[in-house]
Fold this sequence. Notes:
- By secondary structure, this protein is α+β, with helices and mostly antiparallel strands.
- It contains five helices and six strands; from the N terminus they run αββββαββααα.
- It binds 2-acetamido-2-deoxy-beta-D-glucopyranose.
Amino acid sequence: MLLGLMSMCLVFCDAKRDLKIKVLRASEDCKTKAATSDRVVVHYTCRLIDGTVIRNTYDKQPDTFKIGSGEVIIGLEYGMVSMCVGEKRFIEVPSELAYGEEGKPPQIPSNATLLFEVELLEVKRSFLESILDRKLWFIIYIVAGVFLILLVVFKCLPNLPSQKKKIAKNKKKN
Ligand SMILES: *[C@@H]1O[C@H](CO)[C@@H](O)[C@H](O)[C@H]1NC(C)=O
């Protein structure tokens, strides 16, 4: 598990270093933060360095996608983690975390850095998901539960033979 966490960090922390994130507008009342596996509703513009607009959702409806599912480029997913509802961010995504050397012809050239301005409008989470999202608490509950079960099992079982022995000893004395 520790190895898993470490390797996740190797990928995740490295990626975070390459991203440039700037908060353009903070959320006044941050109640919900976007996390992996959240379904988010966003408005965004995506531009190339030279200013060419690749995508602008303000023209039509906001976009909806699930963070961590690969529906959008990984740089945008990483860049939005722990973003508040109501917050607006500038995210500069290097090509390695976007479309890489291949690009996405004809719109996105090879090795293109993408500039996003993202506004998080909504986080859609079911009740179960919101519980599961508190992963740490979930793990603590499970560990505590297992511990309790072990405690009960081991407290009861070894006592039975030792009590029998005691009874046996008492009988011998008598
Ligand atoms: C893209 O980047 C790679 C690796 O840095 C390089 O080998 C390649 O020539 C670049 N392609 C273009 C079109 O700039």
